[in-house]
Amino acid sequence: MQTIEEILRTKKIKVTPQRMAVYTILKESKEHPNVEMIYQKLKPNYPAMSLATVYKTVDVLKTVGLVQELNVGEGGLRYDGWTDPHSHTYCEKCNKVGDIENIPQDFVQNEKLFQKVKAETGLEVSTAQLYFYGICADCRAQMN
Amino acid sequence: MQTIEEILRTKKIKVTPQRMAVYTILKESKEHPNVEMIYQKLKPNYPAMSLATVYKTVDVLKTVGLVQELNVGEGGLRYDGWTDPHSHTYCEKCNKVGDIENIPQDFVQNEKLFQKVKAETGLEVSTAQLYFYGICADCRAQMN
DNA sequence: ATTTCTGCAAATGCTTTGCATTGCA
DNA sequence: TGCAATGCAAAGCATTTGCAGAAAT
What we know:
2 domains, two-stranded antiparallel sheet
């Protein structure tokens, strides 16, 4: 098991406390935070950290493939430190983003389907994203 | 076959030239324009039209269910006048958005799968979106 | 020692808002 | 006529940029 520091070093980017902190948050949290949420989480431990640095850092991490960027809906881009292909849920009421561990990604993330898409549209597919939109259990409970 | 005017009337919203124009563009174009692109297309025929009106109009059309909003990546939200569930392609190089007519939506847009998702995550699913990311044929051709 | 990153502040750019005017019903 | 939509300009936010100082290799 590699440490965060080793992972960053492997990607050949400079290891800084800010990068370790952002990446740690994305690895450990399951809430798919946006930049502002990451910034708020960091503030207690890194009061000097700038929002601009968070923007720059998620961009670097995305570029080297350590995080994936999700386009869900309101509230800006979300970031996920779990980079294996998997589907996501999105609650249209509270904007919560969740992972789907087991079900459907293998349906859509496979070479055969990618070939079919290429045959129909010409797109050389590199990845697929599947999002389920709806209302989460918590929000449904609150609606009564 | 209903006219654009009749369709708007059915949705119980006021029929204005601007709304007809925006909706017509979204019905007729296959390029999934963003607000700015819609505005540029309208300019020749509606030189007085304001960008703010385009924003307001796509919002109304979305609310009444005449268009769907897509979150692809760069370049802001995209709009699609074809509201049947279908998957989309996105070219990471030129930002082009395309439809997939035949292939995969039935895989992901069905009650059985929605129930599975609900069982795993608690999300009461209303709709699913499947996006394929990659490089389109035109951009691949240009890369040689 | 060199290169790259950080933090700040300013700038950018997309989207929304407020309000007077216009236009639909 | 009454209410809603438009167009304009201003305001609001999220994100990016430039740069001097700080930190990593």
